[in-house]
Design brief:
about 425 residues; mainly alpha
Length: about 425
């Protein structure tokens, strides 16, 4: 999230240490989220709905997988740190995780104040980093094994624990007691149990993607052979995950495909065999995670083959944290200034797409939904109506301009500099 893309080399020239393709993949991850929340730019009708459906869940999976890749790149790449270097790496990652939690909770509070129910992923991202600290010392093979085990066990364990929390059990009492003193819960309903089990992107379900990303980051990603293996593996994983899930859904029967959005309801354990977006099931992780692997491999190869042509996307991807935060604030602005209704309107095109055949083919972009009586005009109306296109142009133009003067994006620089100052102080004290 904090790395900076250098100038891209011409096709097939000497590859730099910087993996520009990772930044390009980051751009596609946040772009998918923009499509879901704002609408799909320059697209209408069936094309818009298809892109929204494809992006739902898969952009989150790509974003999460890349979190693991970033962790590997920050901790020695193919050579995990040992000894004193390992201790310092763990401290730096833990501090970065804490800062992401702070930024994410503040952003969640800011957006919640408008009444818009956007689930900000950044605090979840911070917990992913924190939970990944014990795995930093592992090589690719160990990380892959950990990812497979976590994918097989995590979603099911999460479901069981959520069931216990919902009942009159000691687990419920523990959660209530922690929530009384948990600052994240008190400030923005983003406490540790919300981030770990009860939220939209629970770490108990999505940590496998982080570990898989760390395994990918430990590989020689400059090797074309490795990239081909990643793409082939991704295709195999997503195909197996989707096909097995479809077979199980057909066998179990009675599962209303497309009507689940978020973690599997505790009243419906049979939905654990589905691969619905954001469900956090084992099969969703396989489906979306496999596609994320393909994206990473393709973006890495494209970065080498296209030279400077994709520099704007790489620049935007290097500022993914900043762009995500800005997009959340813009969504809040649309409530306060743009005239969005505070309730009764789905917050994503994907939720509309989940209606299936009942969805009309001429679904407008989100900003064009009916208002609640407040009708802005002039520039505000134009920006609000064409927000998908406006924000896409902004998300490419702003990083290009910013990078002419600064090495990192605003939030990326703030987090990195804070990590440096805090860890330098801690290391001096020791």
């Amino acid at each position: 999230m904090t790395a900076v893309a250098p100038a891209l080399s011409s096709p097939r020239t000497e590859r730099t240490r910087r993996l520009v393709g990772i930044d390009i993949a980051r751009f596609f991850a946040v772009f998918g989220m923009f499509c879901i929340h704002f609408g799909v730019p320059f697209a209408h009708g069936d094309v818009e709905v298809w892109i929204a459906q494809f992006s739902s869940g898969r952009s989150t999976a790509l974003f999460t997988l890349l979190a693991g890749v970033s962790l590997a790149m920050m901790t020695g790449r193919s050579e995990p740190p040992t000894g004193e270097a390992l201790r310092q790496a763990r401290i730096k990652i833990a501090v970065r995780a804490a800062l992401l939690l702070v930024v994410g909770i503040a952003l969640a509070k800011a957006t919640a104040a408008t009444g818009f129910l956007l689930t900000v992923i950044i605090p979840f991202y911070g917990l992913y980093f924190l939970l990944a600290v014990p795995f930093i010392r592992l090589r690719a093979r160990g990380l892959l094994i950990a990812a497979v085990v976590a994918a097989a066990v995590g979603p099911q364990l999460s479901f069981v624990l959520r069931t216990w929390i919902a009942g009159d059990t000691p687990m419920r009492a523990i959660v209530d007691a922690v929530n009384l003193v948990d600052p994240g819960h008190l400030i923005a309903d983003a406490g540790v149990f919300k981030l770990l089990l009860l939220g939209f992107y629970p770490a108990a379900s999505y940590l496998p993607l982080v570990l898989a990303g760390m395994a990918v980051g430990r590989l020689d990603l400059q090797s074309t052979k490795v990239r081909c293996w990643l793409a082939a593996t991704g295709l195999a994983v997503t195909t197996v995950g989707y096909q097995v899930s479809s077979w199980l859904v057909e066998t179990v029967g009675g599962l209303p495909q497309g009507q689940i959005e978020g973690t599997v309801p505790i009243e419906h354990p049979e939905w654990l065999v589905a691969a619905a977006a954001h469900s956090g099931t084992t099969f969703e992780l396989l489906d979306s995670g496999g596609i994320a692997l393909v994206f990473v491999a393709v973006c890495l190869e494209l970065a080498d083959r296209t030279g400077r042509a994709l520099k704007p996307l790489a620049a935007a991807g290097s500022m993914a944290l900043t762009l995500y935060a800005i997009h959340a604030l813009v969504l809040a602005w649309q409530i306060v200034v743009g005239g969005w209704p505070l309730s009764g309107v789905p917050d994503t095109l994907a939720q509309l797409a989940s209606m299936g055949p009942a969805l009309p083919t001429d679904v407008p972009n989100m900003p064009a939904f009916p208002r609640d009586g407040h009708h802005p005009d002039g520039v505000v109306a134009f920006v609000n109506t064409y927000m998908p296109e406006v924000f896409l142009i902004f998300s490419i133009a702003f990083p290009l301009i910013w990078r002419r003067f600064f090495r990192r994006g605003p939030l990326e620089a703030a987090v990195s500099e804070s990590v440096r100052r805090i860890t330098d102080h801690l290391f001096r004290r020791r």
